[in-house]
Amino acid sequence: MKQRCFWVTDSKLYQDYHDFEWGEPVYDDKILFEFLILETFQAGVSWITILNKRENFRKAFDNFDYQKIAKYSESKFNELMQDAGIIRNKLKIRSTISNAQLFMDIQKEFGSFSKFIWSYVDGKPILNQFHKKEDVPAKTSISDQLSKDLKKRGFKFTGSTVMYAYMQAVGMVNDHTTDCFKYPN
Fold first, then answer.
1. Among 17, 22, 66, 183, which one carries the catalytic annotation?
2. How many CB atoms neighbour CB 74 within 10 A?
3. Residue 87: left if φ>0, alpha if ψ -120 to 50, beta else—which one?
4. What are the binding residues for Zn(2+)?
5. Is 47 an active-site residue?
6. Is residue 79 helix, strand or coil?
7. C-alpha torsion sign, points 149, 25, 40, 10
8. Is residue 39 flagged as an active site residue?
C-alpha cells in the first residue's frame, strides 16, 4: 500500500488526483486556467465535491476555454445557473466569466499567464518539508501577495487560502508530506 499525504481518502478519484496531478508543475495556460476556476469554485465546499463534478464543469464551461468563457452572454450565464452538474453559485459563475477576461489581460501583459504566476516562485517549485498535517500552512506570504495582486487586477474568489491551494495544485509549491511516496528523495 502506497503511503500518501494525510488528506487523501480511499476514493480512487482522490488517489489518482494526488498521484498524477496534485503538486505536478503546470506551465500550460489552459490547465492553469482550469485549476484557477476549479479552486475558485472549491471555496466553501470540499475538494472531492469539485473532483466529482470536474467533468460536468468541463462540459458546462466549454472545456475551460477562457477565450469562449470571456464572451459568455447573459443567456449562457442563465444556462449555467440551471446546470445541476456544477455548483450553481451566481457570484462564482459571474466571476468565472470576468476572471477569464482578466486572465487574458495578464496574458497580453506578460506573454502568458504561466510567466506571470510562476514569477512568484522564481519559475521553479518551492519544495517544502512538511512532516504532518499541522505543519502545512493554509496560506503563506507568497499566496498573500499573489492574492493581493490578483484582487488589484479585479479577480474574484482569489483569497490567499484559495491561492495557496492553487499553488499546491499546480506545483508552484510541493507540499507532499515527507512520508508520502510522491515526496522527492
1. 17
2. 7
3. beta
4. 5, 18, 176, 180
5. yes
6. helix
7. negative
8. yes
Residue 64 Cα distances to 30, 61, 99, 171, angstroms? 7, 5, 12, 19
Q: Has domain 23-174 been given CATH number 3.40.50.720? A: no
125-157: per-residue pLDDT in tens?
999 999 999 999 999 999 999 999 999 999 999
87-93: Cβ within 8 A, 24+ apart: 87/41, 87/45, 87/49, 87/50, 87/53, 89/41, 91/156, 91/157, 92/40, 92/41, 92/43, 92/157
Quick check: 181 pLDDT over 80?
yes
Q: Which of 39, 72, 164, 166 is catalytic?
A: 39
Which residue ranges make up each domain of the chain? 23-174
